[in-house]
Predict the 3D structure of the following.
Amino acid sequence: MRNAPRNIRRKLADGAPAFGACIQLPTPDTVEIAGYAGLDFAWIDAEHGSMGIGEVNQLVRAADAAGIDAIVRVPDHSSSFIQKVLDMGAAGIIAPHVRDVEVARRVVASANFAPDGVRGACPAVRAVGHLTTDWPTELRRARENILVFGLIEDAEGVENVEEIAADGGLDGLLFGPFDLAMELGLEGDVTNATIRDMNVRVRKAALTAGIQFLAIPGWDETVSMLAAEGVRLFNVTGDRGMLVTAFRSAAAEARREFDAASEENPG
């Protein structure tokens, strides 16, 4: 039997927050670093990240090694891809472009075994420790533990968000401002007042329905403001952004020091 971390489920049950990082680079080391740095989960981005299904498998294994949950943003609503990442041992999925309650229900069905869903069952997959002779126990564990989030990133999804949150069967929602800003002709301006109003609506719909809202501080207000509203899940950073920022900062500091030394010792 495989002992999954269950950080998100455990933290939420205790009324505590859970913090994670978005992983887009196909290197297991980055996921391990996230765990060793004290984060609770890795949001593995198989939609925009530079990775295929094989790399996702290694990133999920790295999450286990570091004792954190792996939540995979799947590239689309393919039942087969959802089944594969859950069979690998991912703690859950994030489905992109959830536009209506029917899409939400189909995604949830893809993540759940019959009779609750349509996920194919197999007693010989990594999620159960590669082989189980106690399928009823593993079935209960899967039903209790798998997390399914929906990403609201289209105008149609915002218009249907209250129904999606209340009746879609999802564990939580996220707000995707960038695609929305593109759809509305705002050229990616996520600070636009219309986008911010949509963000508030999505967040309110999730919390009112009693499901989680996975927030991205900075895009979704500050951690303190979100916590006051009842938000408990936070994606606080990402590997690409953090590396670019750190490299730029290091280069700028080195250039400043070099220029200052050159002025003090010309020639």
